[in-house]
Amino acid sequence: MADRTPTFMQKVGWRIEAIFYDLFVAITRALPVDTASDLGGWLFRHIGPWTSTQKTVLRNFELAFPNMPTEERDALIRQQWENTGRTTAEFPIMDRIVFDPARVEIENFERLEAIAQSGKPVIFISGHLSNWEVMNAAILQAKVPYMITYRAANNPYVDARIKSGRAAYGVNMFAPKGGDGAKELLIALQKGESVGLMNDQKFNRGVPTPFFGHIAETAPGPTKLAQRFGTVLQPLTIRRLHKARFRVTVHDAIPVDDTGHKGQDVDSTVCKITAFIEHAVRDNPAEWFWVHKRWPTSLYKSTSQ
């Protein structure tokens, strides 16, 4: 196995990146909440279309909405860049957002309270909609014991700052993605703690599921966990109401199919999750995370962009 010990220059680079991250945090925290959100939205709306990621966004829209008029598509692309910028700028001030009752309203909050009172774990699922960090706030507000997964930043100093930022608004339990994270999730569920997982990104060798008329590989992990622990998949969506104000909706639970054929039940349930995500995106396309490649590489090569 190759030596993965960071070099001196790599450590120096990480330190410099951490300084810039600290500067970014300092600037956003020095501003009023809505002003910081506005600034992030303005920057990304104007800079995003000039980045190489714009090609991915265009291809995604072409795949999802092939018959959409160009003017409508271009307007949505500008709006999704603005939302991405707002979400980025809001991360360092999430504690101010989630602790302000005027900024987060929760529809069907009683469903979260019932989960907390039951003492039984569920698998929370959602997609990268609006500012998805707000989902954590809603779950924690209901006092549900809760663990999330996260993809650790390559820079360990920045990663530590990200975890500290989440801890500032109550998210203290983490399960890094990978083998170690899977073990932590199992331990948490065995103790009656719920877990939260995003289920809208590409997962190589995942379950082939229809998504906007194309096959996309989707992670079976959330469904397998729900199946193993005899629990349900609890979907949530987030919508931006105005600037840094949001609505979280707690939807009806999705039960895991139970026909006696475990493999088939996982596949069919994953398809139901993907259908739920597609409906949420269609309902509010300006606020999905269009900058990632959701479909197979071959589909992107076949588009005209």
Write up this protein.
With 305 residues, the protein is an alpha/beta fold. It has one domain. It contains twelve helices and nine strands. It has helices at 8-30, 33-47, 53-64, 70-90, 94-98, 109-118, 133-141, 156-167, 179-190, 221-228, 262-283, 297-302, and strands at residues 104-107, 123-126, 146-150, 174-176, 194-198, 207-211, 214-218, 233-240, 246-250. The strands form two sheets. The chain has a seven-stranded mixed β-sheet, with helices on both faces. A hairpin with a 2-residue loop joins strand 6 (207-211) and strand 7 (214-218).
Based on the model shown, name its key terms:
single chain; 305 residues; alpha/beta; 7-stranded mixed sheet; two-stranded antiparallel ribbon; 12 helices
